[in-house]
């Protein structure tokens, strides 16, 4: 009896095993797996699908939260790992140091059509100090100064912006002059760069130098008095968060709003008359942070046997004007390819792109993780109203803490 | 004082306990008889099939240790379940034990193992992977880029048909060298694809997919020492190796300068002047992470303040929640209380809403200028902007979230206190307060103290409450990296994941082990005291 039971179990086990392993044995045709976020999934499916049809490759697009793409890449199993990911340029340093993405070489005719800063943004220095490219830039984004032209004019100078904002704010209770999400180092960067602040300097070869921290540099500290005066006059407050800023502007209660192209649809639908410009020059140019999004080939493409295909999709096809125009029209960002960018006919998108002129790509070295928190805290503290920290102290402290954390 | 241990539910009901055939008993009965045997055989086979398949998957992914471990566990299962009527207790204990090991022991082992490693951004690969990645990242690109089509000649050897991107010169690249050919023999079609000359067949479709690894590794040697490598399926470029690996000396040597990068024993290749290569690997580094925690000024400087705040936060949250919960439970304990059920349901609501939702809602409510709470109050409090007010906010919101738990616990515990004891005390002339203090509370504490300790340990590491409400901020008066409301766990999160060069899992694991010992020590002393409480009776 006992033996029979054991035999029965053994037999059924084999049957169950066979049934379970069926799907894994099939599927020899070339498939390419792409991780993309919800906003881009449809457009990536369409554009990569065209490439796939031409090359006979089945493209599967897996939807992930944008931030999860970077996180999950660390823990994913080879079997389910992506061959290509959509990502932001500021991940590149970490992904390259972890060996998660592989270097690309692109033809000069393709790279000539991409702004050099966008290529640099997707590059990370190797041991020899040479820039190595890890991704194909496809979309650019940056914040701009959105002007409600019904209540304010496009400012001619920084002082003009401040005086218009202050005047509008005093007009009625509940009015705001200029709204920027409080304590947010990204949205406040135009103010920061306008006061001659920077995050990391560059070395002789033009690579970011984590030992040259410009938060709390002498020039910035000398100009920091401006910040205190904006706090004193109530022009800016760290109690205004993203939601408050957005609602105030959409309700027509703010003259100026610092935001990016992800709010383009909102602005289109709002019925407000707006114009987007770069914040006027203060002591230095008030340039925004630039964000570049693109595609990268992961190390898993090699073990999946689709490395050449993935390189072709990313390093060649995705850089083309045709692919970028389509991606741009689907997800509302300016394309990186200059031929494609010249064809944008959306006014707001064009204005956002123009507002990014001379902007600074967000540093892509892993040391940037030490910066966001402390720089954000400094912005919170300087616009706290009555008991605010003086900007000089706040930025000096932030600089000191960031240096200590980088070590 | 001698208290019977049974609950008054049994004592006062007066009726004998009736055992009904429950669904559980019905479920157990399913497993006997011939039908039961078939069911058991099928279930065991399914388990074997599922786990066997898992083992195969693990093997194919080179997880040998995991595969063997899983196989061993499966063997134990089969051994125990295939022996009728022997090892009966083991049949019941086994599933629970396996889950305990899988979800508790393995993570603990994993954490300890990680704590002794250099495992951080730039140190995630194995050493051999790191060597190839460093070589790959340091390939020196030449000037030339080619449009390329992979093809095979009559003998089946791979040949690259190359068209120079700028000059338009055409070549055939073979494994033994480059050959310039007449440009007229190569056509470029309307898609920009290069068509191979006569005698060569372009690789397409499945042939092309099958040649992926071959194509990626293919190199056309050049006279000057460089090579032409493929880039995808339609490009190729001139390149020279930047590093060579000297296996005998375990060194990466820069081909142009001859600078030697050697293993520093801490997961990196370093040159004599101290420059590390970008890509390192995971390496055991002994107690380095543990000493780093102690020697790091970023940790030492605010440690005491963060530690004191963590204890005060956890203790006050637990004590205040318990006090309010007990008070409310006592109120609801009154038999004549009207609308009792409604109040009870309402009071449990904060417990029923997901904590992170409540926290985000509170963050909005507590906004200084635009929040509802300040609009209702006659004065404006800087709830989230002043260090002391922010601490108060964190405690208040945590109390809001924790009180319903203690309300439920106390309601249950109060019911378990025999009414006779209270009545006897009242008859003896004790006041209500005396009854509460001398009878109810001590009896209650016997039951509740372990829960208080558990709740304290939980709040000690209550990352969510702090991180979602204040993010650890505002900045503290000592201007250090730790904010005013940063508890140890949220502060160490900042150190391990938002400092230095990205994430440091080794450091994070070491810190969590330290925190484990702190919490364990405090819980142990708490339990010792609660034992003393129990001895009272």
Number of domains of chain B: 3
CATH architecture of the largest domain in chain B: Orthogonal Bundle
Which homologous superfamily in CATH is the superfamily of the largest domain in chain A? Answer: Periplasmic binding protein-like II
pLDDT averaged over residues of chain A? 89
Q: What's the number of extended β-strand segments of chain A?
A: 15
Q: Output the number of helix runs of chain A.
A: 19
Which secondary-structure class do the elements of chain A indicate?
A: alpha/beta
What would you note in describing this structure?
The complex is a heterodimer of chains A (407) and B (537). Chain A has 407 residues and is an alpha/beta fold. Chain A folds into 2 domains: 31-140 and 292-355, Periplasmic binding protein-like II (D-Maltodextrin-Binding Protein, domain 2, 3-Layer(aba) Sandwich), CATH 3.40.190.10; 144-287 and 371-406, Periplasmic binding protein-like II (D-Maltodextrin-Binding Protein, domain 2, 3-Layer(aba) Sandwich), CATH 3.40.190. Chain A contains 19 helices and 15 strands. Chain A has helices at 2-25, 38-55, 66-75, 92-97, 108-111, 116-121, 158-171, 189-194, 218-223, 225-232, 242-250, 264-270, 300-303, 307-317, 321-331, 338-342, 347-355, 372-382, 391-406, and strands spanning 31-36, 58-63, 84-88, 123-125, 131-133, 135-142, 144-148, 176-179, 200-202, 208-213, 254-259, 274-277, 289-297, 334-335, 360-361. In chain A, the strands form 4 sheets. In chain A, strands 1, 2, 3, 6, 13, 14 and 15 form a 7-stranded mixed sheet that branches. The relative contact order of chain A is 0.17. Residues 24-28 of chain A have low confidence and may be disordered. Chain B is elongated. Chain B has 537 residues and is an alpha+beta fold. In chain B, a hairpin with a 5-residue loop joins strand 3 and strand 4. In chain B, helix 10 (297-333) packs antiparallel against helix 16 and helix 10 packs antiparallel against helix 18 (488-497). In chain B, strands 2, 3, 4, 5, 8, 9, 10 and 11 form an 8-stranded antiparallel sheet that branches. Chain B has a 4-stranded antiparallel sheet with strand order 12-13-14-15, with helices on one face. Chain B has a two-stranded antiparallel ribbon with strand order 1-16. At the A-B interface, helix 1, helix 4, helix 14, helix 18 and helix 19 of A face helix 3, helix 6, strand 2, helix 7 and helix 8 of B.
């Amino acid at each position: 009896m006992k033996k029979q039971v054991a035999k029965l179990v053994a037999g059924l086990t084999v049957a169950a095993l066979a049934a379970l392993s069926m799907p894994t044995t099939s599927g020899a045709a070339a498939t390419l797996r792409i991780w993309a976020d919800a906003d881009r999934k449809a457009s990536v499916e369409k554009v990569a699908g065209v490439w796939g049809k031409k090359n006979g490759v089945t493209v599967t697009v897996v939807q992930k939260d944008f931030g999860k793409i970077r996180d999950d890449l660390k823990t994913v199993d080879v079997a389910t790992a992506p061959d290509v990911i959509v990502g932001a340029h500021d991940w590149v340093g970490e992904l390259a140091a972890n060996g998660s993405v592989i270097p690309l070489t692109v033809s000069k005719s393709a790279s000539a059509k991409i702004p050099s800063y966008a290529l640099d943004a997707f590059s990370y220095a190797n041991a020899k100090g040479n820039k190595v490219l890890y991704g194909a830039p496809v979309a650019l984004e940056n914040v701009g100064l959105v002007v409600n032209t019904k209540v304010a004019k496009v400012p001619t100078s920084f002082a003009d912006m401040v005086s218009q904002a202050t005047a509008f704010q005093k007009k009625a209770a509940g009015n705001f002059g200029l709204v920027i999400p409080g304590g947010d180092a990204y949205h406040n960067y135009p103010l920061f760069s306008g006061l001659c602040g920077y995050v990391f300097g560059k070395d002789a070869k033009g690579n970011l130098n984590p030992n040259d921290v410009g938060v709390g540099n002498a020039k910035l500290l000398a100009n920091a008095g401006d910040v205190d005066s904006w706090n004193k006059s109530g022009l800016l407050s760290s109690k205004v968060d993203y939601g408050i800023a957005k609602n105030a502007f959409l309700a027509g209660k703010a003259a100026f709003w610092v935001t990016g192209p992800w709010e383009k649809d909102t602005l289109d639908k709002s019925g407000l008359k707006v114009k987007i410009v770069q914040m006027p020059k203060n002591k230095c140019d008030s340039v925004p942070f630039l964000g570049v999004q693109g595609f990268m080939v992961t190390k898993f493409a090699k073990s999946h046997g689709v490395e050449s295909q993935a390189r072709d999709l990313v390093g060649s096809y995705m850089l083309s004007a045709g692919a970028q125009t389509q991606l741009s029209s689907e997800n509302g960002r300016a394309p990186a390819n200059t031929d494609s960018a010249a064809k944008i006919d959306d006014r707001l998108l064009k204005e956002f792109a123009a507002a990014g002129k001379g902007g600074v790509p967000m540093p892509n070295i892993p040391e940037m993780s030490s910066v966001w928190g402390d720089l954000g805290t400094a912005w919170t503290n300087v616009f706290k109203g009555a008991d605010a920290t003086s900007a000089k102290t706040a930025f000096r402290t932030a600089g000191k803490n960031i240096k200590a954390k980088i070590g | 004082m001698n208290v019977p241990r049974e609950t008054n539910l049994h004592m006062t009901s007066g009726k004998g306990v009736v055992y009904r055939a429950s669904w559980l008993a019905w479920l157990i009965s399913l497993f006997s008889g011939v039908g039961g045997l078939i069911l058991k055989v099928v279930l065991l086979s399914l388990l074997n099939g599922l786990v066997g398949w898992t083992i195969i998957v693990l093997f194919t992914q080179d997880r040998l240790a995991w595969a063997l471990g899983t196989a061993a566990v499966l063997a134990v299962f089969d051994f125990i379940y295939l022996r009728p009527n022997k090892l009966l207790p083991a049949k019941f204990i086994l599933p629970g034990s396996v889950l305990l090991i899988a979800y508790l022991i393995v993570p603990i082992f994993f954490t300890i193992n990680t704590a002794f490693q250099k495992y951080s951004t730039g140190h995630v690969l194995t050493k051999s992977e790191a060597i190839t990645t460093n070589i790959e990242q340091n390939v020196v690109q030449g000037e030339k880029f080619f449009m390329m089509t992979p093809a095979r000649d009559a003998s089946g050897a791979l040949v690259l048909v190359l068209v120079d991107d700028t000059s338009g010169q055409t070549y055939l690249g073979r494994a033994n060298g480059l050959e310039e050919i007449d440009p007229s023999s190569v056509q470029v079609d309307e898609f920009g694809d290069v068509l191979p000359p006569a005698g060569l067949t372009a690789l397409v479709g499945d042939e092309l997919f099958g040649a992926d690894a071959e194509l990626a590794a293919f190199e056309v040697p050049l006279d000057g020492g460089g090579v032409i490598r493929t880039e995808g399926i339609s490009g190729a470029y001139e390149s020279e190796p930047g590093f060579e690996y000297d296996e005998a000396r375990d060194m990466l040597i820069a081909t142009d300068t001859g600078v030697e990068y050697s293993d520093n024993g801490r997961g990196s290749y370093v040159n004599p002047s101290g420059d590390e290569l970008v890509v390192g690997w995971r390496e055991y580094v002994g107690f380095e992470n543990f000493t780093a925690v102690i020697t790091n000024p970023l940790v030492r400087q605010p440690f005491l303040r963060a530690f004191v705040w963590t204890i005060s936060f956890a203790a006050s949250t637990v004590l205040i929640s318990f006090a309010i919960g007990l008070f409310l439970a006592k109120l609801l304990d009154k038999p004549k209380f009207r609308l009792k059920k409604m109040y009870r349901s309402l009071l449990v609501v904060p417990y029923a809403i997901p904590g992170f939702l409540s926290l985000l809602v509170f963050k909005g409510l507590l906004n200084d200028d635009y929040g509802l709470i300040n609009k209702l109050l006659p004065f404006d409090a800087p709830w989230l902007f002043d260090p002391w007010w922010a601490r108060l906010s964190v405690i208040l919101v945590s109390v809001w979230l924790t009180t319903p738990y203690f309300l439920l616990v106390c309601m249950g515990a109060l019911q378990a206190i025999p009414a006779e004891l209270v009545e006897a005390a009242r008859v003896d002339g004790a006041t209500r307060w005396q009854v509460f203090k001398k009878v109810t509370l001590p009896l209650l504490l016997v039951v509740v103290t372990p829960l208080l300790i558990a709740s304290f340990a939980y709040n000690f590491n209550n990352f969510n409450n702090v991180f979602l409400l204040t993010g650890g901020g505002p900045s503290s008066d000592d201007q250090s990296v730790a904010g005013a409301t940063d508890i140890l766990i949220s502060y160490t999160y900042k150190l391990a994941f938002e400092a230095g060069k990205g994430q440091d899992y080794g450091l994070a694991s070491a810190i969590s082990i330290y925190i484990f010992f702190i919490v364990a020590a405090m819980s142990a002393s708490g339990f010792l005291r609660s034992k003393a409480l129990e001895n009272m009776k």
